[in-house]
């Protein structure tokens, strides 16, 4: 017993009455109770075991074995111990006590718990996500293969375990694994059997820094690519529809030879005005128009920036050699223009589109007569 007292392992002995008879220094360090305070006290008091309150009494009837128990130290912390117990008999063969030799397995228990948790997480991933999770050893031999992504591939979970990846797949399909076995972590998008695949290769190194294994994740991108293409088609359709709507909402009409009219309806914001400016200026150049009528009869209101754009549009038309005329300004729009202090002295404004068209025709007729030509006729 003297040798056990100096053992690096915790040594605890108790008698038939469950009182401590031996408690070495290792036990004192491990459990936080000095020997002089431990000897003579009930073991259930010093080493409470919430998992199994009667375990110490039952050990009196067992020859030997091992139990893993969790104890609360005197400072309130917890420690997990693996106790190898041996029943001590007296001269008549009756139980005289139990000798327990224990070691701290707190880190082992925690690691085991983490392992169980990680396995549960992995199981949840491979069972619910359409991925393929695989692993190989340092020679490229499959050690794991599973995942919901295997469905529809003709490959069963674990089917290739024990076989070399290089025997199962073609050389160009194993380029990523070869690089990973050399220590390179990779993320590759490729194609196999006509399917787009996203692959991750993660090398796992041993204590010597050498690649001992490679963990891989493969994601089939077929469905996401299909969804991406469908989304692009829908966006393109929406863009085309918006373009048609913009064209319908701001039609540029040639109402007379050399006269363009742009009736604007609804809400006119800065973005719409920018589109109108580009389209109208191109139409003026294309048709060599003399006049461009901006009819605002159907516009209830404009913001301050838009009002400024409309004035700039008329000035841009003038730079192209044509005259811009604004017709049908409503009171609310007029108030916005006045509040901005915009100078409309050089811009012709008329009450409605009819007045604007009459103005343009009158101007052109007058110019023709001044040149001695024939009066203008509509095309």
TrEMBL record:
Keywords: Phosphoprotein. It comes from the Bacteria. InterPro entries: Bact_StressResp_Reg (IPR051932), PAS (IPR000014), PAS-assoc_C (IPR000700), PAS-like_dom_sf (IPR035965), PAS_4 (IPR013656), STAS_dom (IPR002645), STAS_dom_sf (IPR036513). Gene3D superfamilies: PAS domain, STAS domain. The keyword Lipid metabolism does not apply. The keyword Phosphoprotein applies. This is Anti-anti-sigma factor. NCBIfam families: sensory_box (TIGR00229). CDD domains: PAS, STAS_RsbR_RsbS_like. Residues 182-233 form the PAC domain. Residues 249-360 form the STAS domain. Residues 1-52, 118-182 form the PAS domain.
